[in-house]
Write the structure tokens for this entry.
Amino acid sequence: MNLTGQSMFLDGTPGQRLGVYTAEPGTPDHDALVLLDMTTPPPAPSALSAPTARDGREAPDGQDGRRRNP
């Protein structure tokens, strides 16, 4: 598999690095990465997944800087 990789150190996280690997779109390597991604479980719901207004109600679209899925 042919991948391009990059890594960087993140401020405030001593000893940790963020690594990203990509494949050229339209190649069998890219298709393999897409299939691999499909095998991961969906993220668990968290407090960050549903932005709320200060009074606890869900913030309307456009007022919290996030896009909602239809």
